[in-house]
Design a protein that fits this description.
seven-stranded antiparallel β-sheet, binds 2',3'- cyclic AMP, 14 helices, ATP binding, Immunoglobulin-like, 24% helix, tyrosine-protein kinase, globular, disordered C terminus, 699 residues, ATP-binding
Length: 699
């Protein structure tokens, strides 16, 4: 037998040895011939590039520098979903990662890849992922410690929700049907509402009705008896509508036939007359109640109904906000609600800030035969996608529907030339939060209440229109040279994209935690009542001259503390009545929060009676434990209605509450515990003229 040298990375102890052992960290795979060099695991893949498309990502990488002396290299991609949001809403250095869910799709597969690319699909929207790409060869399993991988971290984009797949029929009658459905498997964001489209099966979609619902159920009324209908549901998030569900068929019940015997005809006649009378009465009552409800404003502003017959839109009599997303072609919406301006009428003077889509400038608008006015100009920076243009102009489509002194006024849009622009009235003092910080402690109580009154009035208008703002915060209020405050920021993607305060929740949505009501954080229940919670935070921001709510507490700690019943303490020198209003806005039970109409009227009365602002809720702006524990033993516990009434008698209620009106004794009962609990610092005084039955209004 002929001798030869040991192959590379192997050695023998004796001359003429039959076997060459491998050097340290070098191995032979099973099946490797003894004459083959010893090899080692490859180095990590290099130059990983990711390209994200909504909720999928294509990963590409280069071959490892060192193949370990082998040719049998394959690649494995490990997917991890990472979370980690710091107090200021930005990603913290220490992320918590967990393996991706099993329904994440890898194309062609996750392991044993021979090529240097893979597509990963069905990821969650707005989510951070880390991919670890490892190169493996035939000896990698011998040296787990030597294995190296390349990592890449990505954040997926927003994507429309996946289709609703499960629809159930709950109840059917001759003219109506109640349905429920399950949230799409991948909502990919906060579901704003569902669109329910239905039509008679025989009419083949030539005439159809569209309904919108916030929740996962609906009752369709006014249907024809004994008729087959087809229905489709699609969910909408800030990213737009998802695909429609498959058609769901249901039939209404047939008319029940009955005959009248000659003997009983008289009885039946009486019964029919009575029934007709009852129906007429019910209809009359229904109309009266309907009118009353419309006037006292929407108990159900969440649900809006649009009817389409042969594609024509018929809106009900009252003015409600129309969601631009309901338009197939969003540019149609913008031209319905916004005036197209000729760019030559606009002169841009300077840049005043940066918006989500581009710069915000100040300038002048001179329309033919009109006086020149100062304007703010939001521009859409070049290189935008169709979707960005749509989202940018959606704000104008929304703003253009409003006409109120406390809502930022839209002058028009420029869409037919570039840059695309949204032109609004100019607000000399900019955003309320920075304005207040610049003018710390410089305003009188009445001036502050005047500003707050303006914001509440704008919000009343919005809630009357059925519009839920979702991001009411001092940073989204603009102030003009007369200290008039106007609500702004109506972008549809705003809550998700634009607001630097917005942070991801565990359910995947992005929410400005500190300003948002617990039910909106927990299960996305955004209503005018959640806007009222945010209004309470704005009230606190105003009275503390732009202090950050909950200071440096982390978002998670804020959620926990609020859930446990803690509330922000009164800002320094805050009038007791205003602090009470804050606490009312922060009632856990959303129906107990004041309506904007009530807030406006409370503030109006305070303005008429400035003496009422003198009594302060005397707490330092920052107690040791940051928040006030409403269940703390330091404050009297008010177990019963009588207890709090006794408590109330110890307060200087006449001064503290004169001019403050609550709609019912019930509201008062619910709020009064907090009146006592939180105003223990108010100088005790008796209030002999107050009687439990009187309610605060009558004081
Ligand atoms: O606090 P600011 O000066 O006021 O900085 C922000 C910036 O643009 C980005 O939003 C300012 N801004 C936005 N809209 C207007 C407006 N209508 N009038 C004046 N300034 C505005 C805002």
């Amino acid at each position: 037998m002929e001798c030869s040298k040991c192959p590379p990375h192997s050695f023998s102890h004796h001359e003429g040895s039959l076997h060459c052992g491998c050097e340290k960290n070098y191995f032979r795979a099973e099946g490797d011939p003894a004459s083959m060099a010893c090899t080692r695991p490859p180095s990590a893949p290099r130059n990983v590039i990711s390209s994200i498309n909504e909720t999928s990502v294509i990963l590409d990488w280069s071959w490892p520098e060192d193949a370990g002396g082998r040719r049998d290299i394959t690649f494995t991609v490990l997917c991890k979903r990472c979370r980690g949001v710091a107090a200021n809403g930005s990603n913290s250095g220490t992320q918590r990662c967990e393996p991706c869910r099993s329904n994440v799709r890898f194309l062609p597969r996750a392991a044993g890849l021979h090529n240097t690319t893979v597509t990963v699909g069905d990821l969650l929207a707005h989510t951070n992922y880390t991919f670890e790409i490892e190169a493996l060869n035939g000896v990698s399993s011998f040296a787990p410690k030597m294995r190296q991988y390349a990592a890449v971290t990505i954040t997926t984009n927003q994507a429309a929700p996946s289709p609703v797949t499960v629809i159930r029929k709950e109840k059917t009658s001759r003219n109506s049907v109640s349905l429920s459905w399950q949230e799409p498997e991948r909502p990919n964001g906060i579901i704003l509402d569902y669109e329910i489209k239905y039509y008679e099966k025989e009419e083949q979609e030539t005439s159809y009705t569209i309904l919108r619902a916030r929740g996962c159920n609906v009752t369709l009324n006014g249907l024809k008896s004994n008729t087959a209908y087809l229905l489709q549901i699609r969910a909408r998030t800030a990213a737009g509508y998802g695909a429609s569900s498959p058609s769901f068929q249901f039939e209404t019940s047939p008319d029940s036939a009955f005959s009248i015997s000659s003997e009983s005809s008289q009885v039946v006649l009486i019964a029919i007359s009575s029934a007709v009378a009852i129906i007429l009465l019910t209809v009359l009552l229904y109309i009266l109640i309907g009118r009353f409800c419309c006037r006292s404003k929407s108990k159900h502003p969440d649900e809006k109904r649009l009817h389409f017959g042969n594609g024509h839109l018929r809106l009900p009599g009252i003015r409600t906000y129309v969601d631009p997303h309901t338009y197939e072609d969003p540019s149609q919406a913008v031209h319905e609600f916004a005036k197209e301006l000729d760019a030559s009428c606009i002169a841009i003077d300077k840049v005043v800030g940066a918006g989500e889509f581009g710069e915000v400038c100040s300038g002048r608008l001179k329309l033919p035969s009109k006086k020149e006015i100062c304007v703010a100009i939001k521009t859409l920076k070049g290189g935008y996608t169709d979707k960005q243009r749509r989202d940018f102009l959606a704000e104008a489509s929304i703003m253009g529907q409003f006409d109120h002194p406390n809502i930022i006024r839209l002058e028009g849009v420029v869409t037919r030339s570039k840059p695309v622009m949204i032109v609004t009235e100019y607000m000399e003092n900019g955003s309320l939060d920075s304005f207040l910080r610049k003018h710390d402690a410089q305003f009188t109580g009445i001036q502050l209440v005047g500003m707050l009154r303006g914001i509440a009035s704008g919000m009343k208008y919005l809630s009357d229109m059925g519009y839920v703002h979702r991001d009411l915060a001092a940073r989204n209020i603009l102030v003009n040279s007369n200290l008039v405050c106007k609500v702004s920021d109506f972008g549809l993607s705003r809550v998700l994209e634009d607001d630097p305060e917005a942070a991801y929740t565990t359910r995947g949505g992005k929410i400005p935690i500190r300003w948002t009501a617990p039910e909106a954080i927990a299960y996305r229940k955004f209503t005018s009542a959640s806007d009222a919670w945010s209004y309470g935070i704005v009230l606190w921001e105003v009275m503390s001259y732009g202090e950050r709510p909950y200071w440096e507490m982390s978002n998670q700690d804020v959620i926990k503390a609020v859930d446990e019943g803690y509330r922000l303490p009164p800002p320094m020198d805050c009038p007791a009545t205003l602090y009470q209003l804050m606490l009312d806005c922060w009632q856990k039970e959303r129906n107990n929060r004041p309506k904007f109409e009530q807030i406006v009227s409370i503030l109006d009365k305070l303005i008429r009676n400035p003496g009422s602002l003198k009594i302060t809720a005397n707490t330092t702006s920052r107690p040791a434990n940051l928040l006030l524990d409403r269940s703390s033993s330091e404050v009297p516990s008010m177990g019963t209605m009588g207890d709090w009434m006794d408590g109330m008698r110890t307060l200087p209620c006449k001064e503290a509450f004169s001019g403050v009106s609550y709609s019912s004794c019930d509201t008062l009962a619910k709020t009064s515990t907090e009146v006592v609990l939180t105003e223990v610092h108010v100088t005790p005084a008796t209030c002999p003229e107050w009687e439990p039955s009187m309610g605060i209004t009558t004081l």
